[in-house]
Design brief:
By secondary structure, this protein is α/β, with parallel strands linked by helices. 38% of the residues lie in helices and 14% in strands. The strands form two sheets. Strands 1-2-3 form a three-stranded parallel β-sheet. It has a three-stranded parallel β-sheet with strand order 4-5-6, covered by helices on one side.
Length: 182
């Protein structure tokens, strides 16, 4: 049950539009994406809630540099700093989505993101594939007693079982497992 909508076998697909960094650093683009998601028939849209300093180190060390592709020469910190959805945008984006009557939720990447999302009354959470092994984060999300969607593409069977057990032991609402290739 995701915010009053039944999902799973026997129910219509629950369509989620991914906003994340697709706003290209422009607040009005983020609002437009929400409106387009609603107009396109999406049931929900998803953000990612992090800041560069909560997801990586600000380091010029080669371990933190991107060496191939469109972002070659940039550090992880620089890339995440450009791609993140600023925290001050979250409240107006949540308000706008609620006005349009489209579900809005997020993938938090640390406990401070969960704190922000709880203030915004997020109806459910998504754990990103890379965070499927972040047990403190999963426990923090579970303690909200809300439904949780977990992408499992980066986790093995034992890691998935541990994440589900932590969710169950800490009061999570419904649990949805997605196998997404990362």
């Amino acid at each position: 049950n995701l915010n009053g909508t039944k999902v799973g076998k026997g129910y219509s697909p629950y369509l989620v539009a991914e906003v994340s960094a697709n706003h290209n650093g422009n607040f009005e683009n983020a609002r437009k994406l929400i409106k387009l998601a609603k107009e396109s028939g999406a049931d929900a849209l998803k953000l990612q809630t992090y800041r560069a300093d909560t997801i990586t180190l600000n380091s010029n060390n080669n371990d933190f540099k991107i060496n191939v592709g469109a972002w070659s020469g940039q550090t992880s910190y620089e890339l995440y700093d450009k791609a993140h959805t600023p925290w001050e945008w979250h409240e107006p984006l949540f308000t706008y989505a609620n006005q349009l009557e489209i579900d809005i939720f997020s993938s938090p990447f640390d406990e401070t993101a969960v704190e922000l999302l709880e203030k915004l009354k997020v109806p459910f959470y998504k754990i990103a594939s890379f965070e499927a092994v972040d047990i403190p984060l999963i426990e923090c999300v579970a303690l909200t007693n809300k439904p949780v969607i977990i992408s499992t593409g980066m986790a093995n069977k034992d890691e998935i079982a541990e994440a589900v057990e932590v969710l169950r032991q800490n009061g999570s609402g419904d649990i949805i497992l997605l196998h997404c290739i990362s």
